[in-house]
Design a protein that fits this description.
This protein has 201 residues and is α/β, with parallel strands linked by helices. It has two domains: 45 residues; 129 residues, no CATH class. Strands 1, 3, 5, 7, 8 and 10 form a six-stranded parallel β-sheet that branches. It has a five-stranded parallel β-sheet with strand order 2-4-6-11-9, covered by helices on one side. The N and C termini lie far apart (37 Å). InterPro entries: DUF1707_SHOCT-like.
């Protein structure tokens, strides 16, 4: 069976996780990435990840099927900015490898009252912007990096029944930071998003 771009991205994510766990070196990841993005079928994936645990390229995976909003953000030696204007998925996985990811949740909806973001930054940065009324529960670890933020200024108490954002994962020679900002009008938010994209260019 031939692979899609989403399948290649999934295999690349497995390599990043293996490097973060110390199973692969940076040079090994770079050489295997070339093979991943050149792969045509799932059989091509097998020798690339054969020595990694819990790695199975046997079938395509479509993580967005039936789930509101995107469930993943990946930046590889690049920058990704994503603004959520609708329903958040129950879980979102964000990975930055020699790059940066910016997630703007100021206009997001929390249908279940809780969203978990699994943030993994390897020599990169992940910045999560949340509105002031969201409760933030940070449970990540910084390994020669920083992982934190999201505290209310002055120890302000949260509102009963407020949505909860849980941030887990790790930052290895990188940073994962949660920043609070006030909610803005959709028009102003769109202008800021366009300005951020132009600045990256």
């Amino acid at each position: 069976m031939r692979v899609a771009d989403s399948d290649r991205e999934r295999m690349a994510q497995l390599l990043y996780e293996a490097m973060g766990a110390g199973r692969l070196t940076t040079a090994e990841v770079e050489s295997r990435l070339d093979l991943v993005y050149a792969a045509k079928t799932f059989a091509d994936f097998e020798p690339i990840i054969a020595d990694l645990p819990a790695a199975s390229p046997a079938r395509p995976v479509h993580p967005d099927d039936g789930v509101p909003g995107p469930r993943g953000s990946v930046a590889v030696m690049s920058g990704v900015a994503r603004r959520f204007d609708g329903v958040l998925p129950a879980e979102h996985v964000s990975r930055a490898f020699w790059g940066s990811v910016r997630l703007d949740l100021r206009h997001a909806e929390f249908p279940d009252g809780l969203c978990t973001i699994k943030a993994r930054a390897v020599m990169g940065g992940i910045r999560i912007v949340v509105p002031e009324d969201v409760v933030v529960d940070v449970r990540g670890v910084g390994l020669m990096g920083g992982f934190g933020g999201g505290r209310r200024p002055g120890g302000q108490r949260s509102t009963v029944g407020a949505p909860v954002l849980r941030v887990t994962g790790f930052a290895w020679w990188g940073s994962v930071k949660v920043v609070r900002k006030s909610r803005e009008s959709p028009r102003k938010s769109r202008r800021e998003h366009r300005s951020s994209r132009r600045a990256r260019r």
